[in-house]
Design a protein that fits this description.
alpha/beta
């Protein structure tokens, strides 16, 4: 998989973690914080029969790609092109997308995987993870990310204290009693 063919923050280990739970040829995945679509872009190449649903605050939050991916996002002059819904659909024309906060997303669907990759200071993390649980199929998993993020990790960790999280591995993936991987 050529990880450099698309743009975004998730790394190959994060993509592979999602693939680990995409055991069937068909299924569906909901991602909160889809940004420029790097996760879906790569998953779709391997699992084209899956349905992909993206939720992101493209118009209300100003997020920019990094010019230098190994530098701090907030470093001076390190912000490049703005992440927009047009940029997302360039990489993920196959995905259904919703321009809103994840905690405001409403659907009648249940999902095999709910991936939470969003960041931000205005995220209600408890509501976000409650909603993720509510949309989960029986036997499905939640993949939560950014647990140790230098800026947002504390808020995520405090929110997860409301849930039964039992293990964190060396990649900062969280394994609770049921259906939750970060």
């Amino acid at each position: 998989m050529d990880i450099n063919h698309s743009i975004g923050w998730i790394n190959i280990e994060g993509i592979d973690l999602h693939l680990k739970y995409m055991k069937n040829e068909q299924g569906n995945i909901l991602e909160g914080g889809s940004a420029a679509g790097k996760l879906f872009y790569h998953l779709h190449q391997i699992k084209p029969k899956w349905k992909y649903y993206a939720v992101n605050t493209w118009t209300t939050d100003e997020v920019y790609l990094q010019k230098e991916w190994n530098a701090n996002y907030f470093a001076e002059n390190n912000q490049g092109e703005r992440v927009t819904v047009e940029l997302f659909t360039k990489y993920c024309p196959f995905a259904e997308y919703y321009d809103m906060k994840f905690e405001n997303f409403v659907s009648n669907e249940k999902f095999d995987i709910v991936s939470i990759g969003q960041t931000g200071v205005n995220v209600d993390w408890v509501k976000t993870f409650e909603k993720a649980y509510a949309y989960l199929n029986v036997g499905g998993v939640i993949v939560g990310r950014n647990y140790n993020h230098y800026k947002y990790g504390d808020a995520i960790q405090k929110a997860l204290a409301h849930f039964d999280v039992t293990q964190i591995d060396n990649q900062n993936h969280i394994y609770p009693n049921q259906n939750f991987i970060v």
